[in-house]
Amino acid sequence: MAATIPTSRPPPHHHQQPYPSYRTMRRHLKGIIICTTLFCIFVNLIIYLSADTPEPPVLQPAEPVQRRPVVIPELLRGGRRNPLHAPLAADNWKNDWFRSQELNPETLGDLKKEAAMDLVYTWVNGTEPALQDMKEYYKDLSPLFQALKALPEGSLRQNNAGRGRNGATVDKNADQTVNRFRDMNELKYSLRSVIKYGASNMFRKIHILTTEVVVDQRTGEKRGQVPQWLDLDRARDKVDLITHSEIYDDKEHLPSFNSLSIESQMHHVRGLTDIFVYLNDDMFFGMPVDIADFWTPLYGFVFRMDPLTKIPPHPPKPLENTAVVGEWQSLQYTNSILAKQFGARHRVYIAHIPHVLSVPLMEEIQATWPEEFNKTSSHRFRGEGFAHEIQVSYLLSHYTMERLRETQLTSWWRYRLDKNQDGLLDWEEREELIRMVRHYDNLQAENQKVMPDLVKRTFVSGLKDHDRRLENVGISWTNRTTYFLTGMDEYPFMLAYGDLTKSSRHQFTKPYLIQQYQRKCKFEIDFCLGPEFRNSSIPFVDAMTGKGSVFERLAFTEFHCGDCLLHIVRQSSPNPGMSALMPLDQNSKAYGEVLRDLAKYNYVVGHSAFSFLQLKSGMQAESALNTLMRQWEKQAFFCINDDVQDNPLIIERVKKFFSNFLNLRFPEPSPYEKE
Question: What's the total number of domains in the chain?
């Protein structure tokens, strides 16, 4: 009998589910999330690529360095002898310290007196009508603002964070720089923070740099601005008000509304201590600090760096259609100057907190680059002259680090490798370098197999027991700053895993982070020194250090070679101190000059907890200041930047929150305020 064929389908629930399973729904949802994420990434990428952004930070084709002779003035401004000019005698305490990390009590003296320092503020009251009138007058004369006025309406744009990116369109008749001059009593509370948290007698004097304004249009009489809250009688012995006309080399550059211009001249303050700390008026101390947080005779300058932010070594491209030029352009121009002298490397950013500077070193740098200082000084407004302006703190920090590196490499090359100092490296001398490199390579190979810390145990860092050593010479250690690296050990920002078989200009490799103690490199003799260096049949190789020499290529043009060689030389020395790279004859002039420069350019790279805030709107300001208040005495320093545009309602709201914060954070008046 034939099978019966059903004439209708069975109910659906007999063979299939009417709704998708949980597993199916989860799989579909996951796919939707992935697709949405990829779509968002794609849209953001299109927006970013279409924005007006600078070229990626890659090295331009390397040019030969154009080194200038370093000028060390014998006399400083005002006729005072430069304490960093003459070679140091071998009986100086610094000889024991830098040679072998020892301190002889008989030659030591009072090191705390050597650490005397002043404090310098830059300040302006931009709300004073006389200054506003003067500023508007000179804006009309400025080529920067003249060019902007000639632009079509709607073409003027904001400059985002100064990083070279142009932002939203703004009214070309509005003052886009007004926030740089607005006074919210920051200086009053910054000074309170210094009095509260700075160690007793930490600063010998406090200098406030102010502009002069015309008080009588008929006679042209001028006076320096004075903070309304400052009691000049109470402050007479401790606080100096210094007008810009007292420090500028060229008075025709005044008045100046450019902080970079003012900073380029501030080391001319008469009577300023050799070492001084520089603060903007919006910077504050947030925890107890002392001189060891800035500079000490044993360890030198304390530089706080950000190795994740790297400044390109070529001049900035002109920013078009904007009057708001941030710090990025000046940093990039400054690094282009350093690149010509020391090699075209990306150099890391200096943290935006109080900076330590040196009068003799600033005089030395200005004498070496006089045109660049004069050009910066002449720019009444930031951004004039294509923003080719020096950033002083960045320049001094990296100049110091590069000069110490140069001193170490040059001393070892000229006085230790070239044993007879005849300007030629014979085979025996070259073979010593080759053996040292091979020995280091062998140790690195053994480390990979057996003991990763072997090399470090044969090397004694200059930072060993640094807190105890400072306490022993009467310098307090606050524990607010961590000393990570000392320039006595090596250059801190050697390329991480740099390839020494090819030119530095063909690679952009990040430097080692400050916290990375385990560093290594592989020195390639043929690339760094040339194949003739290890050819024993060639009797001599040039050992000179001047233009076009093997050393210039090693140390500056292909800077990663010099970094690696210095690392190997230092790691190969089992003894404390830098005796392995100093001249053997301690009575020679060369020894005294090397000792002087090791002491002059001495530094550590450190870190202190700090915050940087930008106040932009009422709600944002309230939230940011509340967060900072909850971090009470957890930040050694903080900076609160007024970034509010010229909107009266927003300004008043931000002022209210900011004033409440400052009064709560620093309620105790300083001794220099009016009652």
Answer: 2
CA-CA-CA-CA torsion for 128, 132, 138, 140, nearest 10 degrees? Answer: 180
For the chain, the farthest-separated pair of C-alpha atoms sits apart, in whole angstroms, at 129
203 & 329 share domain? yes
Residue 2 pLDDT exceeds 80: no
Q: Is the bond preceding 255 in cis, omega lying within 30 degrees of 0?
A: yes
Question: One-letter amino acid identity for 440?
Answer: Y
Say if residue 151 is in the same domain as residue 207. Answer: yes
CA atoms within 13 A on the CB side of 485: 22
Domain-embedded: residue 675: no
Domain that holds residue 139: 117-400
99 lies in the same domain as 124: no
Please tell me the predicted confidence (pLDDT) of residue 37: 66
Amino acid making up residue 194: V
618-634 pLDDT, tens digit each: 899 999 999 999 999 89
48-58: buried (b, 16+ CB within 10 Å) or exposed (e) per residue?
eeeeeeeeeee
**pLDDT(19) > 50:** no
Looking at residue 582, the DSSP 8-state letter turns out to be: S
Spatial distance between the Cα atoms of 268 and 315, rounded to a whole number of angstroms: 27
Residue 208, helix vs strand vs coil: strand
pTM above 0.85, yes or no: yes
| DSSP code for 329 | H
- Give the confidence band of 58 by pLDDT, cuts at 50, 70, 90: very low
